[in-house]
Amino acid sequence: MAPGVGQKTNVFAPKDSVPVTIQKYTVNLYPKLPVDASIHERAHAFFTNKAALDQIKKKIPMQMYLDHLGIQLGCVPFTQGLVHDWTSHFTDNWCHPNRLDILSFRNSNGVVIDASTPNDIQVLRPVQDGPVALCRPSDVAYAEVRHTIHFDILKPPEPISPLAFVFYIKLPQSTTVQVNGQGNNYQLTTFHGGADLCEMEMEAIQTTILDITHQDGPYALSAPGFAQQGAVADSVEISDRIEEQILCKGKEAICDAIFKSLCPGHSANPHSIVETIYQLVEDSSGNCELLSINQYDVNFMAALQPYISDKAFKADYAYVYFSHLSPKYQLVVKEIFAKNQDPIPLDSRLQRKKLQQLKVACTTAASCL
Question: Which is it for the CA torsion 134, 140, 144, 145, positive or negative?
C-alpha cells in the first residue's frame, strides 16, 4: 500500500543513465554518485552498473570491469584493494612448493626429456657418477608445473572451486665433471639443484633457482623464432591471463564486498529497490507530494532497469506498480482497468505488457481526478 500522510518512505528519484565508452563499447551506466547519495540510490547505482557491465563482461578484461564499477560508485581505492587481495593470493605464492605438481621436465628447446626417477615423475634422477642412464641428463632447463590455488583464505560468501594453472619454471644451469659407466670423464651441464622441487623450502627455491634465473613470475614457453636458439620464455602474457582468470573467479565475491561496503545493511536483492518507489512521497521537510503519473512511471521503470531484460521477474511487479499508487489513483484505476489485480505469470514480457496497460489506465485516471 502507498504510504499515508506522515509516513516516511525514504524514496529517491533514480537518475537517467549516461553513456560511458569502455574500449570500443558504449554502455549506459548510472551517473557517478554524489557523496551524499542515499543508501537506496547507492544500491540502485550498484545494481544498475553491475547489470550494464555484465552485458560486456566477456568482451573486456575483468580488471577493467571492476575499475569502471569502482569509478562510477566512487569507491576506487576500496575496489583496488580487493583486486590486490585476490591477485596477490597467487603472485605472492606462485612458486610455493606446497601448491606445485611437477608435470614434466623440458630442455632449453622446450622439449620434454626423460629426467625423472622410474617411480616418481616429480623427482629428478640424481647427479652421480656411473651409468649415464641413471644420472640426471644434460639440459634440464625447465620444470613444467601445475599450480593449484584455493580461495578459502579469502573467505568468499559462497564456496569457489580451486583454480589450476600450468606454467614453467626456468632452472639454472651449471657444469660439473662426471664419470660415466666406462670410467670416462664427461661434462654435465644441467640443473644441479634439488631433485624434488616440491620438497624444497620456499627460501631455497628463491635463492637457488629464482634469484639466479631472475624469474619473478610464471613463464610460458613458445617455439623459437627464425635464427633464435632455444624456446622463448615469456612472463607477461601468462601473468595477465592468470590474473584475468583469478578475477573472473572472484568477481561475484568482490562485487559482494563492494556492495556491503557501499550499502551496509541494505538488502542485496536488486528487486528490493522497486519496493522503495511510491507515487505518494514525503520530502525531507515532512511534506507529502503526489508525483505525476509520468514521474512515478519514470522512477518505477528506472528501478526495474537492472533486470528489465530478464526472462522472468522475481515478483509480480505489475501488482507492485498498482499497489504503490496513491489510494485515490488505485480506486479510479480499478474502475478503468478491472483486470489490474488479476495475477499473471512472472514472465517479463507479460509483466512489461501489463505495466504498459497500467500506465495507460493511470494516465486516463489522471484526467478524471
Answer: positive
